[in-house]
Design a protein that fits this description.
Elements: H1 7-26, H2 33-37, H3 46-68
Length: 69
């Protein structure tokens, strides 16, 4: 698969993965505000990403509670 991607695409992919890992560790407050202001993955806005995070946490908590019973 990577053979068909250019070097730039591979670097962007790696940057996105690293950014996701670091972002999950530092949270929204650990991300510079100007980076948040310039997110351009339409239609995935900061609000959309926050909503996704809330859904993930809610489902995790439900699963954890279910498995503990």
């Amino acid at each position: 698969m990577f053979k068909k991607l250019g070097l730039e695409a591979i670097l962007i992919l790696h940057a996105a993965i690293v950014g996701g890992i670091i972002g999950s560790a530092v949270g929204k407050l650990g991300i510079p505000q100007n980076w948040l202001n310039n997110l351009c993955e339409y239609p995935r806005t900061v609000k959309w990403i926050e909503s996704l995070g809330e859904v993930c946490v809610s489902r995790y908590e439900t699963l954890r509670t279910t498995l503990a019973e």
